[in-house]
Specification:
The complex is a heterotrimer of chains A (about 325), B (about 55) and C (about 210). Chain B is an alpha+beta fold and about 55 residues long. Chain B contains 1 helix and 2 strands, in the order E-E-H. The two termini of chain C are about 40 Å apart. The chains are: A mainly alpha (about 325), B alpha+beta (about 55), C mainly alpha (about 210).
């Protein structure tokens, strides 16, 4: 109550002693609930709501096996987004930072992900495909340098010639051994994915009853085209104001328009620390909205642009208001 | 599972202007909000002047 | 004074929140605009969100994918989110143009902003738990934003189970509490004086 004195002579802070009118708050609330109930039921009957089916490793392997195979090779080579992400998943990247501000790094690795092991090798180790365990042992007993060389060499060859993955049976063809076990690993992983076993293997490695989809979602997001092409169709990409959009033709989170806006303009749309920039800007702006009553120019806007004269026009024309 | 009078289960149309891009459904929502705001200011509120307790002349 | 704690709490509650101030049947004469109804419309949409959300909770996260009734309840939940935000933002516009923070009402303004932020977070976690393509995509997009600001170390949008618990068990409770405090503050402080009657504000002192 320190500032009690400064408000002592401020009538606006006292309770209203002027003329009053009847106002039934509870009746207003009940009517509002009925109106909103009718309105929302009507809108639901008219427009329903979106439910674009979830994608799976199985649907990925069915619709775009080459993309899945390329992504799996990338995980082994350590070239995917998740493999080089940094905190909170691993230490393979520095994360986003602006000058000395790097909260990502400060908080460290909290959700450890080794992309090659967690997204490819360990799931394969759970498979009962003949020879799969041998492939896993061969990979695991090899030096990291050799693993990366195999995977990178195969990635290059595969990029040049997608036919390495034969179109007929969508199997990666065995090559002469210069890629080590990599083609066979990818081949078996595709087999697992097509059967649906990979979806289970990725989610059950931590718990037999999964509620955490970090691994399959990181894998999907590492992909080149399957996952993101569905998003592009609905304008859900970050560069498409996707944050405020929705699948189908339903309205989305339009209240995120300002958050989404910064991602569309330079320098944030190309900055490697774009997410951190936008996060900090929105933090500052939210703080400004909170403290708006104390910000000199902003708090005078309602005085300069007198929309209040419209709101209280009856009152201002009422002789009572002059007293 | 889409039992609806109008089928919205297809990609939305977008209006683009420079870096601005907005889906028609989002635009409709925002325009309805602005419209409701203006209506709320313009439409006279029921005035039960007989019920005024004080300040009644 | 050996007054009991219970009596103390009762006394101070009644002093600070006398029933006729908490639930008055009159309002200042200037409370005569449709703009005043958008706060209560926001509450009505919140009531509908809790009601439809409870039905979705009882039936579990997969029900609405496989049942016509479930999908309809989901639609009601979604459209109330849109209505809730529309009403809340119009309420915010109204309060801004009334400069409704005047006269020691900053706490009311602040709890309103907290409710707005809380609603955005709550709605966002709702989008995360749709268990469809939209939720998968939003999760993978949001992770970079969360991770870059350090929030991702605590709240992982890719962890669907965590998002379900946040959206169903924790966030509506926090939001509901903020809204209750907001409403109590509105009732305690009363509806803000019209700007032209607030000479101090007119003269630029507040």
């Amino acid at each position: 109550m320190k500032n009690q004195n400064s408000f002592k002579n401020y009538p606006a802070s006292q309770s209203w002693s002027g003329p009053k009118r009847q106002y039934d708050l509870i009746k207003e609330l009940v009517i509002a609930i009925v109106v909103v109930a009718v309105l929302s039921i009507g809108l639901s009957a008219l427009f329903s709501s979106p439910d674009e089916r979830a994608v799976t490793m199985k649907s990925w392997a069915t619709h775009n096996p080459i993309d899945l195979a390329q992504t799996a090779v990338g995980e082994l080579a350590g070239t995917t987004t998740s493999a080089g992400y940094g905190a909170p998943y691993n230490q393979n990247g520095s994360g986003q930072s602006i000058a000395f501000i790097s909260p990502q790094k400060w908080l460290g690795v909290r959700i450890p992900i080794n992309s090659a092991q967690d997204l490819v090798i360990k799931p394969l180790a759970t498979s009962n495909i003949p020879g799969a365990t041998d492939l896993v042992s061969k990979w695991n007993s090899t030096s990291a340098d050799q693993q990366i060389k195999w995977a990178n060499d195969f990635a290059k060859a595969f990029d040049k010639d997608n036919a390495l993955l034969s179109a007929n049976n969508a199997n990666v063809q065995n090559s002469d051994g210069k890629y080590g076990p990599v083609p066979a690993i990818v081949n078996d992983l595709l087999t697992m994915a097509r059967s649906g076993a990979l979806d289970g293997a990725l989610t059950t490695s931590d718990s037999p009853l999964p509620t955490n989809f970090t691994k399959p979602l990181l894998f999907l997001a590492d992909g080149g085209s399957y996952f993101s092409s569905i998003a592009s169709k609905y304008h859900l990409q970050g560069s498409q104001w996707g944050v405020m959009n929705e699948t189908g033709s339903w309205p989305g989170q339009s209240w995120l328009w300002l958050f989404s806006f910064w991602y569309q303009i330079p320098p944030f749309n190309s900055s490697p620390a774009g997410d951190l920039w936008v996060g900090l800007i929105m933090g500052v702006l939210t703080f400004a909205l909170l403290l708006l009553p104390f910000i000199p120019i902003l708090r005078r806007i309602p005085y300069w642009i007198p929309i209040h004269k419209l709101i209280w026009r009856n009152w201002y024309s009422d002789p009572d208001s002059k007293n | 599972m889409f039992l609806a009078v109008l089928n919205l289960n297809h990609p939305a149309h977008f209006l683009n202007w420079g870096p601005l891009s907005i889906s028609i459904p989002n635009l409709v929502i925002i325009l309805v909000m602005v419209f409701l705001f203006i209506l709320a200011l313009m439409i006279p509120f029921p005035n039960h002047s007989q019920e005024n307790k004080e300040g009644e002349k | 004074m050996s007054i009991s704690w219970t009596a103390k709490v009762r006394k101070s509650t009644l002093e600070k929140l006398p029933p006729d101030q908490l639930l008055p049947d009159t309002q200042p004469k200037y409370v005569a605009s449709w703009i005043y109804t958008f706060g209560v419309l926001t509450i009505a949409a919140f009531v509908m969100l809790v009601a439809s959300g409870l039905i979705l909770t009882i039936k579990g996260p997969n029900w609405w994918h496989v049942s016509h009734l479930g999908h309809f309840i989901n639609s009601i939940h979604l459209w109330n989110v849109e209505l809730f935000f529309a009403f809340m933002v119009i309420h915010l516009w109204g309060k801004f143009w009334m400069a409704a923070w005047r006269g020691k009402r900053f706490a009311t303004w602040a709890t309103g902003i907290f409710a707005f932020i809380g609603s955005i977070v709550t709605a966002f976690t709702g989008y995360l738990i749709q268990t469809n393509f939209d939720s998968q995509w939003i999760a993978t997009q949001a992770k970079d934003s969360f991770n870059s600001t350090g929030i991702g170390a605590i709240i992982n949008p890719l962890n669907t189970g965590q998002a379900i618990l946040l959206h169903v068990a924790m966030l509506p409770l926090i939001l509901g509490l903020i809204v209750v405090v907001h409403i109590i503050l509105v009732r305690r402080k009363g509806v803000v004086t019209p700007i032209s009657n607030d000479h101090q504000y007119m003269e630029g002192k507040f």
